[in-house]
């Protein structure tokens, strides 16, 4: 099953969500990466739509950004 045009590709949706939620919190790349326990370069790649995050990485980012996993 492929995503609809409104949903976008999964990595693009994740990238957009990460940028939006980080902007909402006003936190820097460095601070979010530190809180999530990942490298700053990894977070930067994910925000640009590169990389393939594990479920654990997405979970850690949700905790760091204080957003529900489903969002």
TrEMBL record:
Keyword DNA-binding appears in the UniProt entry: yes
GO cellular component: cytosol
CDD domains found in the cross-reference section: HTH_XRE (cd00093)
MF terms (GO), sorted A to Z: DNA binding; DNA-binding transcription factor activity
Residues of the HTH cro/C1-type domain: 18-70
Protein name: Transcriptional regulator
Family matches, as Pfam families: HTH_3
Keyword annotations from UniProtKB, A to Z: DNA-binding
